[in-house]
Specification:
Layout (H helix, E strand, L loop, with lengths): L2 E8 L1 H5 L3 H11 L2 E8 L3 H7 L9 H8 L4 E9 L1 H9 L12 H5 L8 E3 L3 H11 L23
Antiparallel strand pairs: 1-3, 1-4, 2-3
The structure holds uridine-5'-diphosphate and magnesium ion (MG).
């Protein structure tokens, strides 16, 4: 089993509500490895690309204005089956329906303002990592405690 990379955006509501630290703590506490992390402001052009699957939805314009309303945090996280695992940690898109214990289920009440984006498949993750980060911005490192996170054949 190989370690996988997934792409995360901590959305404007996470920053505005002072929840960045709490969300990142969850990644660290679970044992996920942070391999890239930066702050930025999403441009409309980037939203059009990132949310192209939603461009015909009636809520698209308000989604773009929300995503461009304040800076965001972009991250790449690495772990065994990280893509699926992160989606599980996020919970349902509609935060009111997200299970308690998930990030959306614990911190949000909205379908739009739901704190976090995480890639929905390995293919999407590869595209999204490459869209938002250059190779030089992604760091390879080995956590000193890795042998207590995974058995040898799990990574
Ligand atoms: N969204 C929204 N209204 C909807 C569905 C989605 O405002 O009815 C927003 C919400 O912020 C969501 C994002 O669009 O996280 C992307 O939607 P997607 O269906 O890809 O959900 P996700 O993968 O984020 O769970
Ligand atoms: Mg999605």
């Amino acid at each position: 089993m190989a370690l996988e990379r997934t792409f995360v955006i901590l959305k404007p509501d996470a920053l505005q509500r002072g929840l960045i630290g709490k969300v990142i703590s969850r990644f660290e506490e679970r044992g996920l490895k942070i391999v890239a992390d930066k702050m930025g402001r999403m441009e409309k052009r980037m939203c059009d690309e990132h949310y192209s699957h939603l461009k015909d939805k009636q809520f698209f314009t308000r989604l773009v204005s929300f995503m461009t309303s304040a800076p965001v945090i972009y991250m790449v996280l690495e772990g065994a089956e990280a893509v699926e695992m992160l989606r599980g940690m996020c919970g349902a898109t509609n935060a009111r329906k997200a299970a308690v214990g998930t990030i959306r289920g614990d911190f949000a009440l909205s379908t739009q303002c739901n704190i976090i984006h995480a890639s929905d498949s390995k293919e999407t993750a590869e595209k999204e990592v490459a869209r938002f980060f250059s190779k030089e911005e992604i760091f390879e490192w080995v956590p000193s405690f890795e042998k207590f996170i995974y058995a040898d054949d799990e990574k």
